[in-house]
Design brief:
By secondary structure, the protein is an alpha+beta fold. It has four helices and four strands; from the N terminus they run αβββααβα. A hairpin with a 6-residue loop joins β2 and β3. The longest helix is centred in the N-terminal third of the chain and has 19 residues.
Length: about 120
Amino acid sequence: MDKKSSRLKRALRLRCKIKKLNVNRLTIHRTSQHIYAQVLSVDGTVTLAAASTLQADVKAALSNTSNIKAASEVGRVVAERAIAAGVTQVAFDRSGFKYHGRVKALADAAREAGLKF
């Protein structure tokens, strides 16, 4: 089993557990250069809030888009947008990525900005 299929298997297992919780989910995707975050509705069909290092307002505050500082900024912005949309409680969907580094920084920043998970 290669690295990508292992990650997707972890993601599927995690999403099955989140689906039973019946709450909105904060899902992330990490690449070598960027990080993306979305708050999805309970059924997963509607994006309630989103942020990434590709967006102009986020990118302007950063010197580098692939570090922990950038992930923290994305976490803060997505939390603010989610709270503005009326969402305060979410489940954290890390998409099979291990919970350390940029993934952990994004989650911590979202918690500090007011999201509960």
